[in-house]
Amino acid sequence: MNVTTAANAPQERRAATLIMACLGVFVAYLPVTTVAASLPAIQRALDTSTSQLSWVSDAFVLPMAALILTTGVFGDVHGRKKVFQAGLGFSGLGALVALCAQSIEVVWVGQALAGLGSAALLPTTLALISHAVPDPRERGKVIGRWATSLTTALAIGPVIAGVILDHFAWRWIYLLPIPASLLAMAFAAKLLVDSRAPGARRLDWPGQITAALAITALVYGIIEGGVASFTDEKVMVALSTAAVSAVAFVLVERRSSSPMLDLTLFRSPAFTATTLIAMISFLGLIGFFFALSLYFGTVQRLSTLESGWRLLMVSMMPLLLGEPAGRLVHRVSPRVLIPGGLFVTAGALLSLTTIDAGTSFGSLAWRLALLGLGMAFVITPMTATAVSSVPLHQAGMAAAGNNAFRQVGAALGPAVLGTLLSAKAVDALPGHLTDAGLTGATVRHVTAVADTGGLSAVGGTDLGADTPRVLGALSEAFVDGLQLCLIVSATLALLAAVVGMLLLRRPQHPAPPSTGGDSAVHGRHAAANPGATGRAATQPQGPVAPAPAPRVNHQEG
C-alpha cells in the first residue's frame, strides 16, 4: 500500500483523516466514564467485593498505559492506518466480551481488550493529525477538535450509563462501542490516509518489556497497597520490581539503535514539562473524579443519571472551549496558558472543600464549571505543545510518550486518592458516630464493620432504629475524606503549575515543508542541514531567529 504524504493528499482525504482521528479518540475514551458510572450496578449484579470491582477500571487502564508506547512504534513502522483499525477492532471485541460476561473475571478480560484498543488509538490518532497537518499553527486548532472529541466521550459517558441503567441491565452499557467501532473501521478502510515515520525504525522489544513490567508492577503495587498494606510482601515485591524495571528501561533505551521512546526528546523543556504535567495533573484529577462519584452515590444518594448530569458540568467546559484553547496555543505562551489553567483548577478544587452532605446542585454547579474551565486550558494546550515541541517525524513517539505518562497518572489517581479517602473516613467515623448520640457498643460494631469491609459495608448494615444516625455519621466521615482528597488534588495541580512555569517556553516548531514535497524527505534534509530548514521557513520579512531552548537531535532515534 502506498503511503500518501500530507503535502500531496487531496483536501477531502485530509479532512477524512482528521474526522477519523477524532472518532477514534472518542471510541477510545467512551468506556472510561461509562463503566466508572456503572460500577455500583456491576457490583450488585455480579456480587463482587470492593477489591474485585476496582480491577474493572484498572483492567482497562493498565494495558492502555503499558502498551501505548509500543502501539505508537507499530504505527510508525507498519503504518498508522493499520494500527488505527486494529485499535478499533480490539475496542469492539472488548465491548462484545464484556457484554456477554456472566462473571467479573470475564468483565476484566473485556476491559483489558478494550484498553489494548485504546492504547492503539491514542498515539495513532495524534500521529495521523501531525502527518496530515504539518503546519504547527494549524495543527493546534485541529488538536483542539481532537481534545473536544475526547472530552465529549468523557462528558456523555455517565449520562449514557444513567439512561441505560434506568431501563436495562448493566451489560448494555457495552453495546454502543460495538457498532461505533465497526462503522469507524469501514470508513477508515476507504477514506483514511496512511502514514509512517520516515527512516528505518524497528520494534524495540527490550524497551517494551521493561516499560510494561515497570508500569504494571507500579500500578499493581499501589492498588494492593491501598487494599492491604504497603508493608505486605507482595506489595513490596511489586514496587521493587517497578523500580528495577524503570532503571532497566532507561538503560535499554539509551543503548538502543531504534528506541521505543527516544530519551533525547526530554532535551526539549516543553516536552519534559508537558509529560510531567500530564502525569501529575491526571493523578489528581482522575482520583478526584473517582472520589466525587462516590460522594454523589454514597453521601447524596443520587442515581447514576443524576450523578451523570452533575459530572457533565465539569466536562462541558473543555467540550465548549477545547477548540478555542487550541487556537490560543500560538498566541499565548504555554508558560502562561497551561499554568494559568492549572491555577484555576486548583482554586476550583479548594473551593469544593466547603461542601457537605447537604450541598445543593446550584452551589456545586459553579464550582464544577470553574474546574472544567481550568481543565479546558490545560488539556488541549498541553497536548498541542507536546506534539509541536519535537521534530515532525517524532510526533508519533511524542504523542505516545505523553499519553503513556498521562495514563500512568490516571491509573494511580483512583488508587492513591481512594486509599487516602478510605483511611481518613474510617479514622473519623467513630467521632461522628459518638456525635450522633450512638452508644459505645454500636460505635464499636460499626467501626469493626468499616475496618473489615470498608465504607460500603457500613452503608449496607441494618441497625434498626439507629440506621439513619449511622448513615448520617458515615456521610460526615466520607466528607472528611473527600476534603482531604480535594486538598491533595489541588496541591498536585499547583505542583504541575510550578513545573510549567519553570520549564515551558513558547515551542520552537520544526518548519513544515515549504512546497509540495514529501514531509519525510524534508525531515531528513532538515536533519542533514539544519540551516536549510531555517531558510526554507523564512518569510520575506527576514530570517528566523535561532531557538534559545535546547534542540532535539533530529538524527537520533
Task: Please describe the topology of this protein.
Layout: H1 11-46, H2 50-78, H3 80-99, H4 104-132, H5 136-167, H6 177-191, H7 205-227, H8 233-255, H9 269-299, H10 304-328, H11 334-351, H12 361-388, H13 395-435, H14 440-453, H15 455-459, H16 467-503, H17 519-528, H18 530-537
Helix pairs in contact: 1-2, 1-4, 1-5, 1-6, 2-3, 2-4, 2-7, 2-13, 3-4, 3-6, 4-13, 5-10, 5-12, 7-8, 7-13, 9-12, 9-13, 9-16, 10-12, 11-12, 11-16, 12-13, 13-14, 13-16, 17-18
Describe the protein in words.
Helix 1 (11-46) runs parallel beside helix 5 and helix 9 (269-299) runs antiparallel to helix 16. The protein has 18 helices and no strands. The longest helix is centred in the last third of the chain and has 41 residues, at 395-435. The protein is globular and about 75 Å long. With 557 residues, the chain is mostly helical. It folds into 3 domains: 10-193, Growth Hormone, Chain: A; 205-257, no CATH class; 259-510 and 548-557, MFS general substrate transporter like domains (Growth Hormone, Chain: A). It has helices spanning 11-46, 50-78, 80-99, 104-132, 136-167, 177-191, 205-227, 233-255, 269-299, 304-328, 334-351, 361-388, 395-435, 440-453, 455-459, 467-503, 519-528, 530-537.
> What is the strand content?
under 5%
Order of helices and strands: HHHHHHHHHHHHHHHHHH
Report the principal-axis shape.
globular
Question: Would you identify the regions where 5 or more consecutive residues have pLDDT less than 50?
Answer: 1-9, 507-557
Going by CATH, the architecture of the largest domain would be: Up-down Bundle
Helical content band: over 70%
Mean pLDDT: 79
Count every beta strand, where a strand is a DSSP E run of 2 or more residues. Answer: 0
How many whole angstroms does the radius of gyration measure? 24 Å
CATH topology of the largest domain: Growth Hormone, Chain: A
Name of the CATH superfamily of the largest domain: MFS general substrate transporter like domains
- Quickly count the domains: 3
Structure classification: mainly alpha
The total count of helices amounts to 18
| Biggest pleated sheet | none
CATH class of the largest domain: Mainly Alpha
- Span from first to last CA? 25 Å
